[in-house]
Each structure stands twice: as C-alpha cells, then as structure tokens.
Amino acid sequence: MTDDAPAASRAPQTAAPYADALLAQSRRDTVNLMVPGHGATPDGLSADLARFCGEHALAMDIPPLIDGIDVGPDSPFEEATRLAAEAWGARRTWFLANGASQANRMATLAVAGLHTGDTVIAQRSAHSSFTDGVILGDLLPRFVTPSIDGARGINHGVDPHALDEALTRAARDGAAVSAVYVISPSYFGAVADVAALAEVAHRHGAPLVVDGAWGSHFGFHPGLPESPTRLGADLVVSSTHKLGGSLTQSAMLHLGEGPFADALEPLLDRTYMLTQTTSASALLLGSLDIARRALVQGREPIGETLATVEELRQTLRTDGRYPIISDGFSAFPDIVAHDPLRVSIDVTATGLSGHRIREILAGEHGVHLEISTAHAIVAFIGPGKRPDLARFARALFTIADRAEPAGAESTLVFPPLPQPGPMTIRPRTAYFSPHEIVPAAEAVGRISADSLAAYPPGIPNVIPGERITAETVAFLQTVAASPIGYVRGSLDPALARFRVVAREP
Ligand SMILES: Cc1ncc(COP(=O)(O)O)c(C=O)c1O
User: Positive or negative CA dihedral for 421, 425, 426, 428?
Assistant: First the structure.
C-alpha cells in the first residue's frame, strides 16, 4: 500500500454504513433549502414524483457533500467503499453512477496515463465503452480474437496462449503495450482463466484489465467462480447492477493488489473525477452498499438459487429439445468455468430463432429474458432470488410442442467473420477527423469513423481508424438483411451508407 492509501475498513461486513447514514438522514426533521428542488418531501409540486417513486425514495434523494454522510476520509461513504474493496478482494473500489461503461472509460484512461506505451492488447469483442476509452485516451488497440462457437454465432473469451502470442508479436513489432484487456464472463457465462491471463500479462510487463461486467456476484459462494480481483487481475470492471443486486446504472471499479496498483491508484482517482458526475445519486450509490452486504451475507439464499437453477438445467436436459450451451464449454480452450446463474439454451431444435422465442415468452407467458440470438436464449437468475423457473420451463415446452422443427429461422447461418481491414490511423484521429457519409460502394477502401458490430456474434467488424473492406461491407449487409441479425452502430438498417473520414492524412 502507498503511504496515503486509505486505511482498512473498521466496520464489519454486516454493516452498510453509507446506506444507514442515508436512512438516518431521511428520518431527521430537516428543512432542505438546497438541491434537489423536491426538497426530499412530497409537498406541493413533488406530489406526482412521490407517487411515482415513493416518499421514502424522495427522502433519501439527497445531494453529495453532506457532513456525516460523505465528507472526509472517515465518512460512512468512504467506509462503504472500503467494505466493498474487502468483499471483492480489491485494494480500492470506486462507486460509480454511470454504469460499467464509466468503469471501462476510467480503466482505459488510467492505463493511457501510465505512459508505458500507447498500445492496448484487447479482446476484439470488447464493449463499446472500451472503444470510447480508446478514443478518449488516444490508445492504439491490437486485437486478440476470442474463441467463437461458429454454429451458434457466439463468442467466448481469450485463451492465455493466444494472449502470449499477441504480446510476443507486439514486442517483435516494437509496439509498447500499456495494458491487456479481456472480458470474463462472456454474455453466455463462459469464464476465462483470469489467473493465467494475469500471469501472461504481467510476464510481458502489462497490467490485466478484466471487464467483469457480468460477474459482479463472483466470489460470494463456493459454487460461483472466484472474483477476478482475487485471481490477479489489476483492474476489474463490475456492472454491479447487472447481477450484483444494486440499482440499475450503479457500478464499481476494483483495483487489484498487484504490481501496478501503486501506479494505477492515483490515475484512477483522476479518471474518476473526469468521468463521475458531481451529483451522483445517493440512491444509486447507497444501493451498492446494500448489495455488497446482501452478497456477503447471502451464502444460504445464493446456495438455494444455485440449486433451483441446476434443477431447471436438469429438467431441460431430460426433455432433450433445449440443449444447455454451457454443457459443451469444454470444447473451447479459453473456458475454464461457467457462471451457474446464467442458463444459455440452444433453441435450434424448435425451428424458431432465439429472438422469436424471447418474444413469445414475453408476450404470451410473461417471462422476460435478458438476451437472445439467432440460435439461443439466455436466462439470468439473480443471486439469492427464486423466480418461478418451473413456469419458464413449462412455457418453453409449450413453445416446442407447437413449433415446427423444419422451420428455417434457427438454422440460418451467417457467412464467416471477415478479417478487419488494416488500422490506418489512430481511432481517436479517425473519430475527430472531419467525416462524410458515403454510399456503401464508395465506402470500400475508405477509413471508418464509426464502430460497427454485427450481431450475432457481436464482435466489432470495423472500428474508427480501420479501412472498410469489400468483404466487411458484404458481411454487414448480409447480416442486416437477415431476419435474425442486426448491425450495432449503423447509420441505417440496411447498411446502405457509411460514415468515413473525409480527408485522409
Ligand atoms: C461486457 C460489458 N461491459 C460493459 C458494459 C457496460 O455496462 P453498463 O450498462 O453498466 O454501463 C456492458 C453492458 O452490457 C457489457 O456487456
């Protein structure tokens, strides 16, 4: 630890100091002559708002910088962040009000600030907020392709050998690498070998950033994978609101106790200032404190959830029409575990696409799923929750009984992913250069100003600075024309036009 590092937390994990301070404040008899304008009461013009979100929520919706709540290093707020760091095995944790997207921007800007090189080795299937960080920090990405389940149009993670090769190649090319960036778990619950990836990154002198947006519940039960911070990751992006149990938009960034912690910590304090609103919602941040305590204390309910989710998997296996995708994970070298709270289901045998099944489940059965693809649906079950999974299974069987296996939707396959065009100018330069919009045929050979990713499998096919190739245009248009695909970031649904750099340097 550095000399000015915060002290270890004094409160026990059974406490929720910041949330409790907010609750206490909401019960005080106060006259609020400050923002927010609703004054924390349902009076007057705030009556509708109180009906909308409840008087209790209004009473706790207080601004930052209140003595006894979040002012000073010993405040309940700072204590809550220390408890979170301890719970996830981190040196420091930052509470964020703009999702894991903010955490990705903070992480990329911080590694840019290391000044150890402008190259970042990244999993090609990174979230768009990583690309935003690359643009903001003027980094130069070199990509490692994750393993791909071609039959289902799903991408997984990065294998440590592939990372080693990418880092060795970068060194041979004289590229100075400031960080390695991977995603684990994947949308489909595939967990990468974070310990081995950290070892490889560190051996090449680079910190490992793990986008663990979908894994904030990891480490809180022996039946769940370990928290990446405890496996040697230097930075862990956590979308705590996804499966950690906090309110939507609340998130965390964890700094691991690794060889880069001393250098990264002050940089993260600065990138936090750069990206966090000065009016972060007390409700959002307080929910992080509550979620942490619930996860720490939730071993028994989490165990019950794990058992009921396994029962669902068993029911589906016995029926046989809905294979469980994680049952085949051992075929992929990068996958060392799976998230048991995520049930990824292959729907090919029904003849319907995953999108159509998701629609039917919501419209006819009131069952709402997180993700669908052409060939799959994915159900998430929150830790410690016990939704009616028997109803979900019954709905799936009803759909399969009615469906026509000969139906063609789920057997549609896309052409293989084209190789990205060469990165010709830096992403930041491309993003901020004057651009023009041209018809698809004229876009071939030009430098893209946009990021475009075809779903499935959601791997960016073009990022700003890369040349657009004829193969990429054809691929994107094929996916866009399919009833089961779409292209994120496109100017129009048919991919008839592209945004390109106007004057090439
Ligand atoms: C891998 C990954 N990282 C980061 C994010 C951004 O998370 P948030 O929505 O909390 O900003 C997402 C969002 O889905 C994601 O899938």
Answer: negative
